[in-house]
Predict the 3D structure of the following.
Amino acid sequence: MLTAAPPPSPAERLARILDDLCKAVAARGPGGFLPIPLLLLVWTRIRRASLRIARLAARAASGKPPIIRRTPRAAPQNPEPQNPASRKPASRLPRRAGWLIGPVPAAGGYASQLQYLLTQPDMIALLDAAPGIDRLLRPLCRMLAVARPKLPPRPKRPARPAPQPPHAPATPPTRDIPRGDRPRAARAPPQFLRRFTRPPYPA
C-alpha cells in the first residue's frame, strides 16, 4: 500500500521557485533578450540567495538561534586615491520594481507563485524564525514586484549597562596631605655608620 508523501516545506517550495527562475533567466540569454553580463549577475544573485536561504532554513529547523548580523566595519578615514579611468563599473542590478518581468516574461508566473507563498502562515513563521531569509528576499521581491509580508516586530535587544566609574582609593593621594604630616621614606644610614648597622653574625 502506497503512503502519501508529506507536503513540501515552505523552504523547499521557495527553493523550487528560485531554481525555476534561474532556469528561466538562463533561457533568455542565447536569444539576446538579456545581455550576458546582466544575465550572469542576475543568475548568480538568485542562486546565491537560494543556497543561503536553504542554510538558514535548515538552521531554524534544527532549533538553533538565528544568526545575528554583525555591525559592518567602518570605512577607512584616509582611503587610497584611485584613478577614475581605472575604476570598474559597479555590478548592480536595476532598482526599478518588476524590471525582470520585461526581459524574462516567465518571471511573472514565478512572481505570482512567490507572492502566494509569502502569504502562507508556515512561510511567515519561517521568516519570523530566521530573519536572514527576509533580508535575502528583498532584492528578489523588488525585481519581481512582489510585496513582502509584514512580520511581527521583534523584541529589542537589552541595552548594555553603562560602565561603572572606578572606585576611589581608600587613602587620599599624597599631594592632598599637608607637607608636615607626610610619611618620610626610609633612607640608608650614612657611610661611616653602615659598619655599626650590619646584622650580627651567627654564633
Q: What stands out?
A: The chain has five helices and no strands.
